[in-house]
Amino acid sequence: MPAFRTLDDADLAGKRVLVRVDLNVPTEEGRVTDTTRIDRILPTIREIAQKGGKVILLAHFGRPKGRDEKNSLRQIVPALAHALGQPVIFVGDCVGTEAPKAIAAAKNGEILLLENTRFHAGDEANDPEFVKALAANGDLYVNDAFSAAHRAHASTEGLAHLLPAYAGRTMQAELEALSAGLDNPARPVMAIVGGAKVSTKLELLGNLVQKVDVLIIGGGMANTFLAARGVNVGKSLCEHDLAATAREIEEKAKAAGCEIILPVDALVAREFRANPGHRVVSINEVGPDEMILDAGPLSVAEAVLKLNTVKTVVWNGPFGAFELPPFDTATVAVAKAVAERVRDGKLVAVAGGGDTVAAMNHAGVAEDLTYVSTAGGAFLEWMEGKALPGVEALRKG
Ligand code: AMP
With a 6 A CB cut-off, is 53 part of the ligand 1 pocket? Predict the structure, then answer.
């Protein structure tokens, strides 16, 4: 049984259901260019509508300072209605006189979208008066926006204290997957952390070494660890000032019994662009004018061998500059090996964070992993071991 309330616990028929969703989708000239986030919230919306609730969607869009038509959710309505196969009634403000009238006029099973909650400063401030004004439009509150759950805003956290609160199906799936990744994982557990810089992932590394059995470090951040071990990384992206911090993380890992694996070879080049002249070198042979831009074949082989010994993988960040071929090679190879083991039922694999989703899509494995989280900041804060206020508020008391 989940530790938080879900739609299974809610009596939805005839109720006004405020549903916080993530509609922060990419747009170009007022048209939605990627519907991934819309597609993810459809099950929750449909279930509430089918069970006879009035679905009242709340969401933010962009970072407006006050009302700004550029950030109006009105532009999302056609894509949302198309995906649902059902009309969506748009209401020009999330509080005030218009919303209650439109909600009262709507029939059970109909869907309304209220204007951007961030047109009011009270949303991000979690202002009690604003929370009250939002709550006046609903009988129940459902949060289906994991990606916004690391923020204690009125629409992501405050409402859960004024109305009976439940996790939507997407939030539920995300929480169950993340729990299987780190809270109650099948062991041994491996974390793969890559990406550009150690400085952005210090807390994450500090938390992981205490929770996982193996930590594979890749990407630009591996260079900082290599340099701290005395390896010459040439002109590679490297935070030399964090050498002491890298050594501390290594010590912490040792104390916790977590094995840290760094690349043993690399793809190096003199230019940061697609398809430059490049070579494969042992990690101790990087030239003074060369940059490490991807892990090499021996490192990939070691990662895959290790993978065959673990039951759970949690992954954030690419092994190399994967946007520039051929420096996507290690990321793609390891992603494919992970996907194969998941397909064989031998592995639970959870990946997330902005660039990681792009990397998994690029490798063509996003559908094969156990779960790919599209949440950026919330996923990282979860990996850092932080309590997410929007999730905490849904816990069974
Ligand atoms: P992050 O947002 O921290 O996950 O970092 C992702 C970015 O790190 C991607 O844009 C990659 O191109 C970049 N990256 C990964 N490895 C390297 C590397 N060895 N050198 C430079 N950039 C890298």
Answer: no
Dist. CA 103–CA 112, nearest whole Å: 8
Q: Which ligand 1 atom sits closest to the C-alpha of 222?
A: 19
Give me the mean pLDDT over the 176-201 stretch. 93
Domain membership of residue 355 (yes or no) is: yes
Q: Are residues 248 and 141 in the same domain?
A: no
Q: How far is CA 78 from CA 55, 102, 136, in A?
A: 17, 19, 27
Residue of minimum CA distance from atom 18 in ligand 1: 220
Q: Which residues carry out catalysis?
A: 37, 197, 354, 377
Residue 391 maps to a domain: no
Residue 200 in contact with ligand 1 by CB distance below 6 A: yes
| 350/233 same-domain check | yes
Q: Is 286 in the pocket of ligand 1 (CB under 6 A)?
A: no
Q: Assess whether 200 and 165 both reside in one domain.
A: no
Verify that 342 and 258 share a domain, yes or no.
yes
pLDDT at residue number 16: 98
Domain boundary among 117, 134, 169: 169
Per the structure block, which two tokens stand in for 336? 């494919």
Task: Indicate whether 208 and 317 sit together in one domain.
Answer: yes
Sorting pLDDT into bands at 50, 70 and 90, what band is 2? Answer: low
Q: With 60 as the cut, is the pLDDT of residue 1 above it?
A: no
Average pLDDT over residues 149-171: 97
Distance (angstroms) between ligand 1 centre and the Cα of 318 equals 6
* Enclosing domain of residue 350: 185-383
Residues 33 and 26 sit within 8 Å (Cβ to Cβ)? yes
Token pair belonging to 30:
């007022």
Same domain, 35 and 109: yes
What CATH code is carried by the domain that includes residue 221? 3.40.50.1260
Amino acid at 80: L
The stretch 192-214 carries a mean pLDDT of 94
In a domain, 388, yes or no: no
Indicate the top mutation candidate among 355, 360, 362 to test ligand 1's pocket, ranked by most ligand atoms within 8 A of CB: 355
Alpha-carbon distance of 153 to 163, in angstroms, equals 15
Q: Is 220 in the pocket of ligand 1 (CB under 6 A)?
A: yes
d(CA 392, CA 397): 10
Task: Tell me what percent of the residues of the chain surpass a pLDDT of 70.
Answer: 99
Centre of ligand 1 to C-alpha 291, Å, is 12
* Weakest-pLDDT range from 25-34, 234-243, 279-288: 25-34
Indicate whether residue 152 lines ligand 1 (CB < 6 A).
no
The answer to whether residue 389 sits within a structural domain is no
Confidence of residue 275 (pLDDT cuts 50, 70, 90): very high
**Number of compact structural domains in the chain:** 2
Tell me if residue 113 falls in helix, strand or coil: strand
Nearest CA to ligand 1 atom 6: 195
